[in-house]
Amino acid sequence: MLKFKKTDTMHVNIRRFCLALVACLCMSGSVSAIVRNPMIWADVPDPDVIRVGEYYYMVTTTMHLMPGAPIMRSKDFSNWETIGYLFDRLTDSPKYDMEDGTVYGRGQWATSLRYHKGTFYALFAPNDNLGGDTYIMTAKDAAGPWKIHSRLRHFHDASLFFDDDDRVYVIYGTGEMCELTSDLQGVVPGSECRIFQREADETGLLEGSRFIKHDGKYYLLMISHVWAPGRYRRQVCYRADDIKGPYEKKVILQSDFGGFPHVGQGTIVDGNDGKWYGVIFQDRGGVGRVLTYMPCRWIDGWPILGDEQGRVPDTMPQGGDEVRSTHLVTSDDFSNDKLSLYWQWNHNPIDEAWSLTERPGFLRLKTNKIVSNVYAARNTISQRMEGPRCSASVTLDLRHMVDGDRCGLAAFNGHSGLLTIVRDGKSYKLVQSNTLVHLTDREKAITGVNEDVVEQVDLKRCKKIQLRIDGDFTPGKDIATFYYKIGKGEWTPIGEPFKMQFDYRRLFMGTRYAIFNYATKQAGGYVDVDSFDYSREE
Question: How does DSSP classify residue 188?
């Protein structure tokens, strides 16, 4: 058992004392709080960050997860909390309901977040149907509710931009731009143009547009994929005196970090302290795409990222005076009548197949549709896993499972490590297995699942069980290990260590803690989830 489990009272009390001491010292000015990179050691790709007043607001990509496009808030770049989502579900395609395919690795991508004259704006184009709609959504409060303001044609990885004269533009694709009508309901005829031409060696995409104006000049930040020796991914910037150009170009970041290459794609933001900062993601294996936080220094009119050597720093000063601790992943005893903002469903949920009120203090997951594998189960519910090491356990009441039901806890991804309770007739067994899903390229339809059963245990007529998965994302590891407990016994290991992977061809996300329950023979059974207990090594 990991030493940082919340059940260890001594460790918890020591940690609380240390946090309180640090808080006091910070308020007294005796020490400077720091942020260690990765700023967020979890899957938060394609960030856009803005500052409104004392708060930084961030939106990120969650693709096939619902609710989608989380809005996060921080005062200091260290403590981020989820305050809402752009939408509860998407309904433009049956694939969001796992009909005629899925949206694994597709769905909502690379949202642009803006604030203009008292209103928050968000623009994104779901990637499940190329050539489909782009949404512009608005809200008076970043926490929501958000409403669809307009639908436009498809803009890939776009940035919404309000100029000083209130004219509005969308910058998208590889250096393409158009002007929107003043009501944001359409494109101004004849306004489409290309503002730069890629260099000859940029054989990959330039994408992830983030557009700002600073000191009267226009800046377009993008990630450039250059597959040449010593080049790889890099963050580039295009600059012009006029929004239509001509634009000149500069590489503003080309750095590895922490034993992983290719830091690239993100944005810059002005801080409360008058300085500028960069928030750029990095691919980190099984945990997904993490966020790094770094200085942005204006040198000769260019926003140069990184430290004095142009590298991502190991640590940064905390960008504010917030002392309270917030998290993106939390424990849950399911005592509220509304689901915590930290949970997301796999595709659009079946609302009638889950409840927090039928048995207060429990999350009830009912089977509704007969499926053959966990990847086809819509009412799988999940939270992120975090580095460097994390641990989560779930307590399940199994008494109302029926023959053929499958429930459990997973390190969930295109390659998944599962702890599955199998109801077979009147008997129960616990199975630790590793799975790999196969999807079509276009529709992302599930064509098959390879399952490797590592170990199984006969549970006889077990009524209640605890399952636990520990994740180790220290560099070179990406290992999940599995345990179970019955009654007041000790944690018993089961199976073998599982190598977690990031695979853009499948789910295109970091590995998540997922609680699942599905039927393979008949609908109507259910399990009650008593608690989800989570801890992370700081």
Answer: P
Displacement of CA 476 from its chain's centroid (Å): 22
**Considering the entire predicted model, what is its pTM?**
0.92
SS (H, E, C) 143-183: CCCCEEEEEECCCCCCEEEECCCCCEEEEECCCEEEEECCC
Structure token digits, residue 25: 């010292």
Q: In what side-by-side order are the strands of the sheet with 119-124?
A: 112-116, 119-124, 134-139, 147-152
Whether omega before 229 lies within 30 degrees of 0, making that bond cis, reads: no
| Those residues with Cβ within 8 angstroms of residue 449's Cβ, 6 or more apart along the chain or in another chain | 372, 373, 374, 375, 435, 436, 437, 438
Q: Please, what are the domains in the chain? A: 32-317 (2.115.10.20), 344-536 (2.60.120.200)
* Separation CA 105–CA 506 (nearest Å): 6
Q: Which two tokens stand for residue 87?
A: 């939408």
Beta-bridge mates of residue 224: 206, 234
Which residue would you say has higher pLDDT here, 530 or 199?
A: 530
Share of residues in the chain with pLDDT > 70 (%): 92
* Residue 14 pLDDT > 70: no
User: Over 50: is that where the pLDDT of 330 sits?
Assistant: yes
Contact 375, 512 (CB under 8 A): no
Q: Go through 332-363 and write b for each residue having 16 or more CB atoms within 10 A of its CB, e for each that does not.
A: bebeeeebebbbbbbbbbbeebbbbeeeeebb
Give ∠ CA 229-231-232 in degrees, rounded to 5: 100
Q: Which residues of 461-473 are buried (b: 16+ CB within 10 A; e: fewer)?
A: ebeebbbbbbbbb
Q: Would you mind telling me the total number of residues written for the chain in this entry?
A: 538
